Amino acid sequence: MSKQVITAGIRGANVVVDRVEGKINAAIAKFGADKEVKLPNTAYYLPVIYGITGMKVETLGDMLPVMEKCRQLLADVPVDNCWTPYLGPGLDSGMATLFAFDMEEALKYVEGSPYLDSKEDPEETDADIWLGAADDIILRKRGVEFVDGSAPGFAAVVGAASSPDAALAIAKELQEKSIYVFMASNNENGNCFSKQLVEAEAQVGWNTRLVPFGYDHSAAIHAVGFAVRAALTFGGQTPGDFKGVLKYIQDRVFAFILALGPVCDEQYAAACGCINFGVPVIADTDFPEVLPTGVCTYEHVVTNIPETEIVTKGIEVRGLKITIAKIDIPMSYGPAFEGERIKKDAMHVELGGPKSFGFEFAYSKPLDEVEDGKFTVVGPNIKDVEVGGLLPIGIWIELAGRKFQEDFEPILERQCHHLLNGAEGILHIGQRDIVWMRISKKAVEAGFTFEHFGTILHAKMHNEFGAIVDKVQVTIFTDPDKVKEHLEIARKTWVDRDNRLADMNDETTETFYSCSLCQSFAPTHVCVVTPERPGLCGAYNWLDCRASYEINEHGPNQPIAKGDPMDERLGKWKGVDEFVVPASGNAFESFAAYSILVDPMTSCGCFEAIAACLFAANGIMVVDRDYAGDTPCGMAFSTLAGSVGGGLQTPGFVGISKFYIGSKKFISAEGGIKRLCWLPKALKEASKDMIDARGAEVGVPNLYDMIATEENGTDEETIMAFLTEVGHPCLEMDQLMEMM
Amino acid sequence: MAFSAQTEKYSGKMGTLTFGSGDQALTVGGQASMPFAAFDGDLPNKAVIAMEVYDVVNPEWPAAVVEPFKDVINDPVAWAKKNVEEYGAKAICLQLASTDPNGEDKDAAYAADLVSKMLAAISVPLIVWGSGAVEKDAEVLAKVCEVNEGKNLLIGPAVEENYKKIAAAALGYGHAVVSQSPIDVNMAKQMNILINNLGLPMDKIIMEPSTAALGYGVEYSYSVMERISLAALAQNDEKMQCPMINDLGKECWKAREVMLSDKEEPGFGPDQEKRGVLWEAMTAVDMLLAGSNLLIMRSPKAVKLVEECINELSA
Amino acid sequence: MGLTGIQIFKLLPKTNCKECGSPTCLAFAMALAGGKAELDKCPYVSDEAKATLSEASAPPIRGVQIGDKKVGEELVFYRHEKTFINPTAIACLVTDEMDDAEVDAKINNLNTVTFERVGLTLSADLLAIRNSSGDAGKFEALVNKALGATEKGLILMSDNLDALEAGAKAANGKGALLYAATADNCEKVAEIAKANGASVVAKGASVEEVSNFTGKIVAAGVKDVVLDTGATDLKSMFYNENQVRRAALKAKNRDLGFPTIEVICDMTDDPYKEAMLANVAIAKYAGIIVMSDIDKERMLPLLVQRLNIYTDPQRPMVMDEGIYEINKPGPDSPVIITTNFALTYFIVAAEIEASRVPTWLLIMDVEGMSVLTAWSAGKFVADAMAPFVVKSGMKEKINHNKIIIPGYVAQISGEFQEELGTDWEVIIGTREASDLPAFLKGL
Known about the structure:
By secondary structure, chain B is an alpha/beta fold. Chain B is 40% helix and 14% strand. In chain B, helix 7 packs parallel to helix 10 (272-290).
């Protein structure tokens, strides 16, 4: 497998080190060991050597100890019948190659620089195009772009494409994504990518981000030197702290190598060196791959990728995140258009809705099965529809991402509404299979087509969910049969998703999530969101929190390793207390997930509903925000909210989401749903399915009929009479008063 | 019950920020106690007031605040010099109001050049403040950083939408950054983390938790800052241990209680200058009491009053 | 912190008799826990429960009433912990050596300098009368004059016990505050106070000195004590105020569990500096401050500062619903709608004012939420806003049909337009108030 690559690399490394040693000795013989060695206008000596080893090469003589270092790193060329070497010796030999190249390039400057020193772009009057090492001014100016993300990374292109036009296509694709193209090293036939670009009449230089470093293999070292100096300048890394430098480059300087055309031993050797920096190699020729991950984020060497796909593959393998600055649609886009209504007479076409049918569906696939940015329309497009027309619609979104998890699918799917509504002239209502859309005449006049649904979803999902999404492909179905066919597939998945969510439980989950979004006004409040207990506002369930954390790891939702259980009935875990107590500013001492009486969760103020103990009835009532009347506990919702909210633990009361009523963990420490004895009528009716289901599970199938509402009474005495009459189970349970 | 003085010991300590270069450099922060509570812990650096200078002045400014600068109001460099030489400013904050795209929309090169000229003319550290237009600020402040490499300016405000460009430029060219967040403790922390993650060390970051003037939400700024201070000190939250700055001059001098003459609002009292000076000075003292280390102020009289407070409370 | 509602509930009779005015014992317990009810309201509470509860619910800093102004009862060091409760009382000083005109002018300022804000009237609170002359008769005469000239509560200040007694007698029944008892004369002063329904300032050179004799005043039957711990400048005031609050809240030192008074007009002659001292005193724990004058220019910022610092952080200030006229709008002036969160109102109103563009500002009651919060809570949404706009009477004041909504709720524009029908045209305004002047001028 990878042995062939490593063997070639070590072979090449030996050739390079031998050659450079000869050149050093010759130079010393000619100029003397004290002869100054210097790259133009830099404080970083020979940057790769300086960054990795801390050795300052200032004279030819200083190169000798570096040469010794190269010899130490260099492995012998392996023999055929041996299984070794693996990665280690190959990486070390590669590093020796990089040191040798660093010196080989520096020697050119001793002889008199062959490069356009300190120039950003070659000019027409210049004899050649090669820029050589970037000086510190260029480094800073361009390095800042790597730090602020305006340059997402660089591609070091070695060798040559199949033709100048193919070279231009690759360069353009990289340019469009704002990726720098660092070019050096020729092919065995003497071709090189830089020259191909010039032949194709592309302007090369730092300003077009197409940087021709040099023709020789050794000139590729200027790309590595750039990365190393970035680590020293912007990463504050100490020269010689090779771990720090390597890690910085791996984490921050998103670089990859595109090896075009046949790869020679010296190029293999340099590639081995680059893998040390987490820089993967993507080649268009066929040779064995080095797939296992370890040093690089994902694979190390990926081969046999067609020229037309090599850029996409490089971005994927390096884990580069692309943002799309402008959504390329003929209408305006922004939050101001989210509320726009499109009346019948302003409408060109209606999609889905009550008079037709429609859906939207997002699911994930393996990376190589999704083509990023591909938008297809199956069925009539906008131009085929008369004004005032009606079509079914299916928006079929295929997603892929290295960090994508199946559980994120519904979260992204739900975004369609918000994302599509931002476009001027698109009205979107509903989700799943109740989608209803209108497109305005104005939008169609401006040039809108159905592909633009894809354009919008692709751009926004990359920009807002780039942390988890790498590829977005969208198909728009308007052909009725196709819509129906795909709707069936989607429906099956929705059922699966709903079941999966219902099957999740707290016992088998090791990580809960916090939500501290409300600390701005309730400084001591921390929501603990578990699979069986959504956030009390009803807006965030466990999956939402997890996705929110994956998207923004410094945001308000943090993972909580729940740790060892301390009390399973109350829902206390060691890890949860260790997280929650300091996160609340030490406002309380312990936290119980399932109890209303002992260390209940704090309440911010956003709760959908409040559960309160009714001690006389020995039960629990729940009142929601929409019910303004009196309740049996003697306090209306607003009074309760005033005394329960604000980030305090208030035993006897707890803020909850309405959905939590149907959870197995609903106040389970005190007996759960069987305690539920009073609800506002509207809430009771809306919760009927949950109550019936849970009632059956706990052996009280007619629980629904036993729960009092305001129609039965709003004071404890009256509802007591009702509860006694119907024989509500709470009357027979352990005394709540004793459970504290 | 016998009285015994109580002291608070905190496990954490606020970090410091140094801005300006060479002998002129100033250090703020580093406190190990809540504001002015020297009886609880070390307060190594007194709070500093930077006096602001505008490169273009809104014609609606009340006469009372134009008066002290009327001879230099159209010349920001002369204004800065006057603030230093006549009013004893310890630092200057250049407000690049003219770069606002909704206003004169002057370009980044102009701003960078103005900063260079001001640096050459004054002997105190310089803060450079954008117009608040998020995208334009990124462009302008990045250029200011590049052209004035190594001067250790304090630049800002960097907000969630533009911090990358601003912080990267500060990192690349040796400056410090104001990290601004909407009045919220967790958002302030998140901004610090984001900027720090770009590579800018914590001692190159100062927090602006969004400053509101008296009557316009000062209590929100006040409580958020107290909470940040306590998180840094009592909870030893490393990501909250950046000192704090308040850009308050502009907030105070647009309050209607300051803008309106007694003709327009007789109930406010005839001495408009007194109202304005006190509005600014009291807002400033509130910020100090809540934990501010660096104040940006406008009126020389207000600055003097607040400096007296700082000196007396630190005596 | 005291007991939780449930802990209190356990001690109550649990009969839901409703005689306390609360519908259930639980509701009553919650009100007690929140400091919103008095235990005395429950006729059936047992003595044992009473003892437990009153011990637990006794405030660490006593509330003291002077005239109709209450100070003290604070529970926290930082307002975000819960809230500051009774705003610092501001007193104006007059002396019996001032001429009538000066006294009249000062009392007139005290009576008349008021500001309207968020539906509240802000004003100074107390008149401090100092016996500078040493003459009891003069003092008594001034107290009598003051009683006729102002409704405000009185602080009577004299080192001369005869004068103090004469003044206290004159103000008997008015809940005056006597200034001051010292270590040497505290029993005597307490006696005077007790006889005349007054409260007493315990004054010493330091916190420690004062703590040594407040117990004697209480023992003499005067529970309402205020502390003057002898601060003479900003620094000592800051230190003493911190120490008194720590002693009361952390060490539970009952001898220092009283509100404080700072006579800041004795610390400086400079009116600006006095304002700065007052500013610090309001933020840092003073119960009462005595100032040299109640002039508009200083009171406006000081009273707003006090309002801001003492606002309950969990209960936003709100504006009344209705139409607000800014820059004298006419029939063709634009209409802007926003929420009744006071901060939103202030910021929007100030920007409109600064623009000088005559504008109608329509404020809708959404329980004091900001625009985005109210929108996400379903309160600042089309089907609630449209009926409000219709019944607001706005339409009758204008000759056009445009209404501007905040840019942050642009997403409701379509639905709002539908709800309002053809009578109105909905226009999306700016997201930030600071962009309003340019927006209004560009209309």
